[in-house]
What we know:
- The protein has one domain (11-107): Pantoate--beta-alanine Ligase, Chain: A,domain 2 (2-Layer Sandwich), CATH 3.30.1300.
- By secondary structure, it is an alpha+beta fold.
- The chain has a four-stranded antiparallel β-sheet with strand order 1-2-3-4, with helices on one face.
- The protein has one helix at 11-58, and strands spanning 64-69, 72-82, 85-93, 99-107.
- The protein is built from one helix and four strands, in the order H-E-E-E-E.
- The chain is rod-shaped, with a radius of gyration of 27 Å.
- This is Late competence protein ComGE.
- It comes from Geobacillus stearothermophilus (Bacillus stearothermophilus).
Amino acid sequence: MCKKCSRGFLLMEALFALALLWTAAAVFLPMLMQMELERNNLALEEQAQRLLAIALYEEPLVGETKASIGRTVFRLRAYEEGGRMWKVCVRWNDYAGREKERCGYSKR
């Protein structure tokens, strides 16, 4: 039997593997958090688009209206552009704190 042969990992090998694992986690965790934030912001954009479609085509909107979905407040505002043309805009703050706006036009 070989006396110098070791069975299993040495403490230094285990610590090195653990350090590699922690380094990989430290690099990839912020990217995963950013991806989750942007995924939530895309969901807010879809909700804003739905509200805009409802305001343009289904429900007559005059002036400014607020709609709350979850913890996000959407502000809808309608403008008369001249004649029978209406412009409706929806504004909201996304999860990164940026103010976003979507607008659409319709005839009434």
